[in-house]
Predict the 3D structure of the following.
Amino acid sequence: MFKKIIITSGPTLEPIDPVRFISNRSSGKSGYHLAMEARKRALGPITFITGPTYYLPAQVEVIQVETALEMRAAIGSHFRQANVIIMAAAVSDYRSLKYYPDKLKKNNDRMTLELVKNPDILLELGRHKRKNQILVGFAAETEDIFANAQNKLIAKNLDLLVLNEISEANPAFACDQNQVYLVRPDGVRKLEKMNKAHIAALIWDEIVSLAGRS
Ligand code: C5P
């Protein structure tokens, strides 16, 4: 059905020195289930670009990266051929301005690490998106979730946004179950709390229906 599908997954890992890094709690389960579901339905060849994770789908092309910049470069060389791009990766918003080639010493009681913003890959993809490409993003919000989601959808030129409301009852990260909303320019659909595998199936239903319209 699709010429090529790109799915990004996992966290990115931004090194500080040879033994330390900045990262986040993304397990890579959402991206993994999206790839497995697309494979099961034989929707098209999949390029799975992932930060460090245990969840690597079998029988798909896997490109393992560490940093946001590496992820951006890997996507860049596949983007033109793809007609579905799902950014399920939890890209680190910041990286250390400097990489310290020697392990940092604990000399002082305080230390300051200067961070620099990573590129917003999804925003860049949205700017380059062509008519025959479907772009899907993820968002984790804690307040004004629908207003923020709609703004993100427009700002990043997305066709679909999978919205996580992060709360104590729904941590979303690094767990098997999740409650999400599927946000499209024409409306919001609430999904009940369910397994990430089941959510992946409903996300693909939505993408396939979007593809049928264009
Ligand atoms: O703006 P926010 O970080 O909430 O957006 C989350 C979405 O943007 C996710 O789909 C994530 O993969 C993507 N993202 C990105 N590059 C970044 C930060 C987030 O592509 N630097």
Remarks:
- The two ends are 13 Å apart (CA to CA).
- Residues 68, 87, 89, 91, 93, 118, 120-122, 137-139, 152 surround cytidine-5'-monophosphate (CB under 6 Å).
- The chain has a mean pLDDT of 95.
